[in-house]
Amino acid sequence: TIGHSNLEFLQFAAALKEAGVELLVDVRSRPQSSRFPQFTQSVLEKLLEAENIAYLSLGEELGGRPDDPDAYQPDGIVDYRARRKSYAFGAGLERVLRELQSRTLALMCAEEDPLECHRFLMICPELVASGIQPLHIRKGSHIETQEAAETRLLESNGFGDVAAHTLFPDARAEALEKAHDLQAAKFAFRVDLTMLFVGRL
Q1: What's the CA gap between 40 and 153, in Å, rounded?
Q2: What does 41-89 look like in DSSP terms, one character per residue?
Q3: 53, 91, 120, 159 - which has most CB atoms within 10 Å?
Q4: What is the pTM assigned to this prediction?
């Protein structure tokens, strides 16, 4: 996975190439950026093509700001667990797994730190359950493993006692679920529910 953050396009492309990425999967619900226009979909797709990197948008299926009212909790925060059970999410995940059979890909959103992004908090648990161990491209093309990112997640949410190599993997797995929920409460998209439901009235 990768977050474009405030990178110049050539820095971004270099990081992708260094990691051997052949396909960029855009998982932003709104694939545009006024602050960083190089990451607006129409521009980005052309820039990537010039670098021989394919582009695929799956924001509708895997985005962190779904249009489905059922994907939100009563307080307006996206419910990642509920979203993972949706047909759209399942279809998006299937497409990712299918693409992975033939080429190396990266899931892209905006945030540099995966722990602050739905690509890690919502999508990666399903990839792990499917037998995939994601890698995260960080600043300076540093690669962070999924296990290292999960350990950071545990430590930052008060589960440091099971963050290291624990003799009780079930305890780590249970703590990870709780840590994901706590982290999602901090960083998941929050919507004004009156605006979300207005289209249904």
Answers
A1: 30
A2: HHHHHHHHHHTT-EEEE-HHHH-SS-S-GGGB-TTSBB-HHHHHTSHHH
A3: 120
A4: 0.93
